[in-house]
Amino acid sequence: MKVEFLNAAKVHKRLARLIRDHEEYHWAVAWATETELSKDAFANRNRFKNVVIGVDFSQTDPAVVDALVGVKNGLVATEFATGTYHPKVYGFRSADEIVAIVGSSNFTRGGLGRNLEGAVQLTGKVGDQALDDILEFVANCRKYGRPATPAYASAYRASWERARKLPRAPRNPVSEHMLRASTNFMDMEWSEYARRVRTGGHHDVAESLDLLMVVRRWFAATSSFADFSVSQRKAVAGIAGQRDKDGPELNRDWGWFGSMRGAGDFANRISENDKALARAVDGIPRSGEVSREQYSRFCDAFTEAFANSTRTGGVATASRLLAMKRPDTFLCISKPNREGAAEAMAFTRKNLSLEDYWEQVVEVIRHSKWFNSPKPDGADGELWEARAAMLDAIFYSP
User: Fold this and answer.
1) 225: phi > 0 → left, psi -120 to 50 → alpha, else beta; which?
2) Which CDD domains does the record cross-reference, listed alphabetically (predicted)?
3) Residue 330, exposed/middle/buried by CB under 10 A (0-12, 13-18, 19+)?
4) How confident is the model over 41-76, as pLDDT tens digits?
């Protein structure tokens, strides 16, 4: 068996030759980007014997995932749950000849060119223990893979787009729940989103956006929800009555985005200026990324507010507060919009819980194409700032 050391440039040259000359590809690769070399490989997709490409932290080019759709023996590694799927193993076989390149080079532009990389090439035949072990290793990697379906490729591309805006992308870019969501919802363009909001028929869009702007000013002017007046707190909570509309900013319909007038225990907590409820709202930042941890702390404090109540607050009342604080991130799920939202985002209409709300509502919204569109100029810029909450105009059905 022959062993050679290769740098990144040599790995690229050898792979180009091996892709051209060999009958079977046996690869386990952490990440890949679309290059002329990847196009050459996929032009010979019938030679894929075991090819398993990772997508952890959204480091793989979505064009590569698109190319894997429908490829026999080409898989996306999504099932390695204990750490990061991180191999860089390229095996090739023709009859009894085996060649393998093992090292630090991913199937990316950097890994095959501009990075400082090191690898070894092993050349030999069937029966050489190290080469047999390499092919067996790659074959075992199949258990970490799944076929790349059109739904998965679409969801991955949306996740990849979003990950580029985050300081750190999540390890698993596509949840199973995201794959169940409506592709019409996930793949909707911004222009279609804006059209549907403005033609929904049940929202006065201008009044709705004006309401959210008023609430945004209130949050900007105070350090805590506890410092709001009773009337302001009731307005934010969706329980304001006629007597609470005691000023020009308050004199409007506060039932937009979910009226909570029937939630008695919730209304009591708002009126009494419950400290835990204020702490829940204050824990959600006024701007920037809202994290899963911040949402979890919100849920803990929100639940604490109802510790001595016969009825606890639920998704409707919690998401009403969240949507008012951050309409760019949260949608109030209430009875009139629940059915439409459930159908689009594939959650169970009757059993949505606070624990499920993040994965089944927030994450689906965040990975949708319309959500990740750049902020437009003009009138739609204000709508973009409230694009999660304004889904109510699409889903609302009295």
Assistant:
1) alpha
2) PLDc_Bfil_DEXD_like
3) buried
4) 999 999 999 999 999 999 999 999 999 999 999 999
C-alpha to C-alpha distances, 100 to 46, 89, 155, 231, nearest whole angstrom? 19, 7, 33, 71
Please enumerate in sequence order all residues whose Cβ is within 8 A of that of 381, keeping only pairs 6 or more positions apart, or say none: 375
What would the pLDDT profile of 115-154 be if each residue is shown by its tens digit?
999 999 999 999 999 999 999 999 999 999 999 999 999 9
Residues 6+ apart with CB under 8 A from 167: 289
> What's the whole-number mean pLDDT along residues 293-320?
91
3-state secondary structure 24-59: EEEEEECCECCCHHHHHHHHCHHHEEEEEEECHHHC
User: What is the C-alpha to C-alpha distance for residues 297 and 279, in angstroms, rounded to an integer?
Assistant: 9
Which residue has tokens 């290793």?
137
Distance CA 364, CA 368 (A): 6
Instruction: Return the closest-CA partner of residue 363 out of 305, 317, 281, 295.
Output: 295
pLDDT band at 296 (very low <50, low <70, confident <90, very high): very high
Residue with tokens 């040599």: 10
Domains present along the chain, CATH in parentheses: 2-149 (3.30.870.10), 179-395 (no CATH)
User: What's the longest Cα–Cα distance across the chain?
Assistant: 88
Tokens 């969501």 found at = 181
pLDDT at 167 over 80: no
